Known about the structure:
The complex is a heterodimer of chains A (about 270) and B (about 230). Chain A has about 270 residues and is α+β, with helices and mostly antiparallel strands.
Amino acid sequence: NKLPSRPGSFPAVNETVTPKQKAITYNNFYEFGTDKRDPADHAGSLHTRPWTVTLEGLCNNPKTVGIDDLLRYRPLEDRTYRFRCVEAWSMVIPWVGYSLAELIKFAQPKAQAKYVEFISFFDPKQESDAPGMIQWPYREGLRMDEAMHPLTLLTFGSYGETLENQQGAPVRIIVPWKYGFKSAKSVTRIRFVAEEPATTWDTLSPSEYGFYSNVNPQRDEPRWSQAHERRIDTSLLPHTVPTLPFNGYAEQVAGLYKGMDLIKNY
Amino acid sequence: MTNRAVQWTKPLIFLLFLTPSLLLVRALLANQLGSDPVATLTHNTGDLAVYCLLIGLAISPVRRLSPRLGFLVRYRRMVGLFAFYYATLHLLVYVFLFSGFDITSALANVKAHEWHALRQNWIDVWPTLRDDLKKRVFIQVGLLAWFLLFLLAITSPQSVMRRMGGKPWQTLHRVVYGAAILAMVHYWWLVKKGNLAPLADTVVLAVLLLARPAWSWWQKRRARPTLQTAA
Lengths: 266, 231
């Protein structure tokens, strides 16, 4: 389905956009299987209507909002961002959505709310390929200032159309300066909390995936060098590009981490 | 199967094992390897190497099922060499396509006979390769498995076997068990936690390895003389 949108408030990335066909057939969405191709093959079983997003926890306006109301709440923008997976591949994807900050303001978080937790939808009937070793539903989180940052996108679409199920339909988060797993898919609950929330990958393998998980070429992952990435674009032969600090968004977001040791707080 | 039939089927089996690599090359050239061709090539060549190892390791338990299956052992060397072939392709894909080596520029340099620039392509990627090898245990383990297969491959000709003597040769070729186990460790270490993709291969390998002591145990038990006791 086409989504009405207008040019975004951030300059688009001046790099070759990943062809849509590639972006929607190469996904990590373990609820639908662990192979990159699985989500495209299996996510058809996900029902994205009716769908609600519940705002809860430490906020003055807790609400459960229908997806179509959420979609119309603010004008949708086109935002073409780099997308960097922790597995050292990357894409350039034109997302459609509006800043998550708009929704957070609507929820009116209390002063004690320091973090935002995102809980993805989980139904073993619709998502029967989810590996049992992982505790579902999928959980992610951001610090309040990260969640409020205008780059953080409440995302409803890509390539001018509604999200495909395998991309995390009907609504997901996109945090372009962090590794892809920080961008929760098929979000159904947004909770305001005082303490740093436990997140799925950090719980599973704390030495590999920290809470912050900012894209950082300096911080090695035990299995992959993070110094460069394989750009998935139109080229047949591998196109390796150097990885940029904060995935190229340092100018906008480095200030959020002033005084923090980003090797320790990975 | 008669001697002749084995001779006759060998080229067919050879083609059968070679075909997956030809299909991969064709799919690559037709840009049909999915969104991330390099990842597909890496995974497929790795899978194929493991499959060949498992098939090779299955031959001796399977032929014990029936004396008529004894001929299978005559294909084993070829299957083993194919395991080495696919493991080598896997390694080459890693070095030239996966590691960050600038293959596009390198190919242009080869075409233009710019050997100096080609050397520079190597120098550029060398720190990454060295780092990978130093830091990433799964790569060390994978490389060791490849090296073991390499040893088996270069000692596979009949002439080498004769020169080594049957017994030492056989002892050396038992390292294939080690290579297969290392390949599994390599696989488990490379997938993210929670991903059980290597499970199927691992179970098959475990069954094939356990079949051997189970067989000897069974043989010993059968050989043990029993006493008929009068009730």
